[in-house]
Write a structure and sequence with these properties.
CATH class of one domain: Alpha Beta
Distance between the termini: 45 Å
CATH superfamily of one domain: ApbE-like domains
Structural class: alpha+beta
Helix content: 25-40%
Order of helices and strands: HEEEHHEHHHEEHEEEEEEHHEE
């Protein structure tokens, strides 16, 4: 099956036009502390890892290993390599002897689906395909795809039809398809954090589309992560302090099918519609996988449901920007 372009693919295309000498580790020294940084493209997004370590040579070597691991994971989760594990699953409806990381991520995805009552669902790819087929066609009706097309697409969605076992992954019905864009960046971030910790690094910031900090930046000073203004994406609306914590943001501004933004890339799996209650939601959690999945799920929930959802998922709080521009902080306590 030929997958339709995703939000991250469009970011990749745009970035590639201006990207020069971005991939690969660089390093420098501030005072007595060594800093090494890797920059590249991951799942179509400009990404970065920064580590602080007394041994600059060691830090640079570890970053090279991290880059190799990122590339390996991306070959499992991308929709833009014809032989990726995910593309083969979507094409054939079944994948025998699936890679461990794919099994683990799909199993975790189904757990989030059950936990959120199906609001988070990685089988929404048919909805993307329906919107893409409509809006990428010449003279597309700005009102969106016909109702019968959206009903057909929504009927193909359902995490219970994604059967995950170590020996095989199966899609229960023809036409079902999976996208991992709403959780894979967080999962990959966590795997890189594990790699860095296993190498003994105690101060690092991993940003693979979602952000996670290891320790503090220097001494007791936390790492700082910016939350983009959903109404002016060239501007950082606020900064969040991170120490041993992750941050993920979801917002309809990330990719829009139409000029007015009525149809965007975050779909309600129950109806196929694109909600507009929020401009963005940023979730803080102990891991990037949790933050990533819950940022997507919370975007599809009413405001009063967020504390329970965050608490059930193990998140600590959410920063919510409403459609009218008002900002609220939602706590789990």
């Amino acid at each position: 099956m030929n997958a339709a372009p995703t939000r991250r693919r469009f970011i990749r295309i745009a970035a590639a036009a201006t990207l020069t000498q971005l991939a690969g580790p660089t390093s420098g020294v501030r005072g007595e502390e060594s800093i090494a940084t890797w920059r590249g493209l991951t799942m179509g997004t400009l990404t970065r890892i920064e580590v602080r370590d007394p041994d600059r040579v060691r830090a640079t070597r570890i970053l090279a290993a991290a880059a190799q691991e990122i590339a390996r994971l991306e070959t499992l989760f991308t929709l833009y390599q014809a032989d990726s594990a995910l593309v083969r699953l979507n094409r054939d409806g079944r994948l025998d002897d699936p890679p461990f990381d794919l099994v683990r991520l799909l199993a975790e995805s189904n757990e989030f689906s059950a936990q959120t009552g199906g609001v988070f669902d990685v089988t929404v790819q048919p909805i993307w395909q329906a919107y893409a087929a409509h809006f990428f066609a010449p003279d597309a009706d700005p009102a969106g795809p016909p109702a019968d097309v959206m009903r057909w697409a929504a009927d193909l969605v359902g995490y219970r039809g994604l059967e995950v076992e170590p020996a095989a992954v199966r899609l229960a019905r023809p036409g079902m398809a999976v996208t991992l864009n709403g959780i894979a960046p967080g999962y990959m971030t966590d795997r890189i954090v594990e790699l860095l910790k296993n190498e003994g690094l105690e101060h690092a910031l991993v940003d693979l589309g979602e952000i996670r900090a290891i320790g503090a930046r220097a001494g007791q000073e936390p790492w700082r992560a910016g939350i983009r203004d959903p109404f002016d994406t060239e501007r950082v609306a606020m900064e969040v302090a991170l120490t041993d914590q992750a941050l993920a943001t979801s917002g309809g501004y990330g990719f829009r099918f139409d000029r007015d933004g009525c149809f965007h890339h975050i779909f309600d799996p129950r109806s196929g519609g694109c909600p507009h209650t929020y401009a963005s939601i940023s979730v803080l959690a102990p891991t990037a996988t949790v933050a990533d999945a819950l940022a997507t799920a919370c975007y599809l929930m009413p405001l009063e449901a967020l504390p329970a959802a965050l608490r059930a998922g193990g998140a600590t709080r959410a920063i919510v920007v409403l459609a009218n521009g008002e900002t609220r902080t939602v706590s789990t306590s």
